[in-house]
Amino acid sequence: PFEVELRRSNRTVTVPADSSVLAAVRAELPGTLYSCEQGFCGTCQQRVLDGEVDHRDELLTDAERGDSMLICVSRALGERIVLDS
Ligand code: FES
């Protein structure tokens, strides 16, 4: 498990090993946008403010990976990531 801080919402959620960042974020922010849930449409892209991301999509460019992630498939490499959400 790892933590995801939703900085603008001032909340932190825990993501279990068997669930996605998207699911954890949606539990707190039901309006969070998503579509394919498989890492190819880009709808769920969010800005990352801090933390190392384990990118598991095949859509984002290296430049985009510098400051964002697809939260339906990608995860944290460490114990915590911070989203601009
Ligand atoms: Fe489509 Fe995440 S919902 S890439």
Cross-sheet strand order for the largest sheet: 2-1-7-3-5
Question: Largest beta sheet, briefly?
Answer: 5 strands, mixed
Rg value: 11 Å
Q: Count every helix, treating DSSP H or I runs of 4 or more residues as helices.
A: 2
Q: List ligands, each type once.
A: FE2/S2 (inorganic) cluster
- Low-confidence segments: none
Which structural class do the helices and strands define?
A: alpha+beta
Strand fraction: 25-35%
Q: What is the averaged pLDDT score?
A: 97
Order of helices and strands: EEHEEHEEE
Helix content: 10-25%
Could you say which overall geometry the principal axes of the C-alpha atoms support? globular
Straight-line distance between termini:
20 Å
Count of DSSP E strands? 7
Protein described:
The chain has 85 residues and is an alpha+beta fold. Helix content is 14%, strand content 32%. The protein has a 5-stranded mixed sheet, with helices on one face. A two-stranded antiparallel sheet has the order 4-6. The model has no long low-confidence stretch (mean pLDDT 97). It binds FE2/S2 (inorganic) cluster. FE2/S2 (inorganic) cluster binds next to loops.
